[in-house]
Design a protein that fits this description.
By secondary structure, the protein is an alpha/beta fold. It is built from six helices and twelve strands.
């Protein structure tokens, strides 16, 4: 796990890295950094389903450019399907590299809510205390709190019925499909990570604690335990 709060980690040369973020339920973001690792060579946001969007966005930003030197991968929380499609695409590239005897390329993962928090802090330096909210599973949201300009180390999942968690303070809400709880909607401002990231490609170079090396096994993270999800069973749907 990266030190996402105030801790620092060693800087990484991100020149010619390829970024893929399919954590949003509404779009996929992709970008290629230039040789400095601080500016976009190309950037795209595809507002389509993840299955098409991951590959369409990646193709738009790659074009005829050289092979990426490494990958920046959003591991969530967010759309499990989208994140795992992006992870599978990266794993396939790494497997092809291995088959050809090409040295392994680094895969550096980042968390969606922590990236949003740092982008907001950089874009709006007057904001020091707020919470970033994003859809989780049905009737639940993921929350990351920022206090004194420092994001907490981890996010939490809250039920939409826990109105006391949404009734005070300022919230920035990532793009979502479902309606927000009334208590949250009253305090919420929209946060487009794609738009902020387009304008701030240097965020990863300046905040290396956002990134962690996941080797050749990128995957999705989620706040909920796997066994907490409701499973389909025939008994639940049989007539009484």
């Amino acid at each position: 796990m990266p030190a996402r709060g105030g801790a620092k980690s060693a800087p990484v040369n991100l020149g010619n890295f390829l970024l893929t973020d399919a954590s949003s339920p509404l779009s996929v973001v992709a970008g290629t950094l230039d040789g400095s690792g601080r500016a976009w060579r190309a950037f795209a946001e595809e507002k389509s389903a993840a299955l098409e969007g991951v590959f369409d966005a990646t193709e738009k930003v790659r074009g005829n450019a050289e092979e990426p030197r490494g990958f920046l991968f959003c591991e969530g929380p967010g759309s499990i399907l989208g994140i795992r499609i992006a992870a599978a695409a990266i794993r396939a590239r790494l497997a092809l590299d291995a088959a050809k005897g090409v040295p392994a390329r680094p895969v550096l993962a980042f968390r969606s809510l922590h990236l949003a928090a740092h982008l907001l802090l950089r874009a709006f330096p007057q904001e020091k205390d707020f919470t970033v909210a994003a859809e989780s599973r049905m009737n639940a949201l993921n929350l990351l709190r920022v206090r004194g300009g420092v994001p907490e180390d981890d996010f939490e999942e809250a039920k939409t019925s826990e109105t006391e968690k949404f009734s005070a303070g300022k919230f920035f809400v990532l793009p979502h499909r479902r309606a927000l709880p009334a208590a949250l909607a009253a305090n919420a401002a929209p946060c487009s990570v794609g738009a902020l990231l387009r304008e701030d490609p240097a965020v990863f170079a300046d905040v290396p604690a956002l990134l962690r090396d996941v080797g050749n096994a990128p995957d999705a993270v989620n706040a909920a335990e796997a066994d907490a999800y409701a499973r389909w069973t025939p008994e639940r749907h049989r007539a009484a």
